[in-house]
Structures are given as structure tokens and as C-alpha cells.
Amino acid sequence: MRVPIFQVDAFTTRRFAGNPAAVMRLDRFLPDAVLQDIAAENNLAETAFLVPQEGDYALRWFTPAVEVPLCGHATLASAAVVMQRLEPERRRVVFHTASGALGVSRTDTGYVMDFPARPTAAVAAPPGLAAALGAPVLEIEAEAHNYLALLADPGTLRALAPDFAALAHLERGGIIVTARDSGQPYDFISRYFAPAKGIPEDPVTGSAHCSLVPFWARRLGKTSLRAFQASARGGELQCRLLGERVELAGGCVFYLEGVVEL
User: Fold this and answer.
1) What is the mean pLDDT of residues 178-204?
2) Is the backbone of residue 207 left (phi > 0), alpha (psi -120 to 50) or beta?
3) Which site among 12, 68, 227, 261 is 20 to 30 Å from 118 CA-CA?
């Protein structure tokens, strides 16, 4: 069995930045164990699997260790594969996922995704969080999947060298760390750690911005925000809060195209 594979750098306009995702188009979903083996073999933060469904596509995402319910950068990469390679006449696609229908539209500069917001609420800091991050935390909030920690300044955030083994034992699978930026050009910056999911640090995380956008919108008093994820690769997102939905916009660059033998 031969399956096309694409590797795309998402949330960037230049190669070797943003977040790389593998995208594979299948006629049907293979057994979960096979999909997980493929994702582990690809060894990227996420592998996206596409299956045609009533004119659009069903979409699933796997890290090297687990399937996840929502992934932004691999959805962005999947949209680029559909609209630049599989069906280049298209300007919009809907992906049917564990998080509902996710629409993606092509623009002159990239893609705009329509995702569900994941608002956070204040919680008690889990024991050992500040020690695991290696920095004091001003506030801690959470939603079902992630903690969100507010730090005092962007310099502290950029310098973090977390204890990933300690973070892997937190109750939630991921930790979003964020700080306000100057507003020139970014309103806020962030990093995302998910060692429990097999991803010590994710380079650019669309799903984390489903929480970051409502978090910063209520603090800054505006719904249009520009964000930067300050990983080693780095990535930029244009964000907009629309009630219970979040728009995330970014670019994609193709890196690799080939065939997988199964």
C-alpha cells in the first residue's frame, strides 16, 4: 500500500520555521494502532490523516504517543495540502473532527481557521508547577486539556528551561505559558509544553491559542490580537475572538512530498 505524504511548516512564511506537520490522505482510516505507528515513525509533533467525506474531509491527528482531540498547525497544514495539491481550485474546506466541523478558508497570504474557543478559569496552582517551570507564576487558569500560566514578562518566558519529567506528571496533558508583549508587533507571546503527550515543547500550537485568545481578549479589551509562539522555531498567528469561536490565521510552506510504503 502506497500513501502520499506531505510535510508542511505551518504558521510561518519561511521554511525551517513554524511547526512541521505530516499530512497523509487515505481512502479510509486504518486501524488506530497503525495510525499511531505511522505517527511515531514520522516523529513530528502531529501527523494528520485525511479521508474524503461528502465533498470535504474527515480529519484525525496523532502525536508520536497519542491521538489528540484538536490540533491547529496540522489542520492548517491539511488545508494547504487540500487547496494547493489535492484540489487546487478550492478556496475553502471543512474538516470533520473530534472537535466538530472546522472550516478553513484560503486568503491571498495564507489560511484562516475557524476553531472552537476554549476559555479558561482560575484554579489553584498544582503543586510543583512553578518549580517545574523554573519561574514564578503570577496567575494560573485551566480548561479541560491544559493549564495556562501567566508570567511577569516576555524575557522570563523566553528563558524558560522546564523540567519536562516533572511537567509530565501534572493532572492536565499540557501547560500553556504566556506573557504580555509590548504590542509592537505582538500583543502576547507564549510557549507550550506537553511531555505527557510525547511533545516536550510544541513549536507553534493552534489549539493553545483557542485558550490564549479569550484569555488576552478580556485583559486587553480587544478581540483582534497578534501572537507569537516563542519556541526555537517560532511562529506568528493573527487571531480574532468571535463569541464562542476563534479565528486563527497563518501561512504554510511545503517542505517534503513523497510516498509512504505500508
Assistant:
1) 95
2) alpha
3) 12
Helix axes 72-81, 206-220, angle to 10 degrees: 120
Report the number of secondary-structure helices (H) and strands (E) in the chain. Answer: 6, 18
**Assigned architecture for domain 121-233:** Roll (3.10)
User: Is pLDDT of 58 > 90?
Assistant: yes
Q: What is the mean pLDDT of residues 99-127?
A: 97
Return the CATH fold of 2-116+249-261: Diaminopimelate Epimerase; Chain A, domain 1 (3.10.310)
Catalytic residue flag (residue 143): no
Q: Following DSSP, what letter does each residue of 186-197 receive, concatenated?
A: -SEEEEEEEGGG
Beta carbons within 10 angstroms of residue 185's beta carbon: 9
For residue 213, give the nearest of 185, 183, 244 by alpha carbon. Answer: 244
Q: φ and ψ at 218, to 5 degrees? A: -75, -25
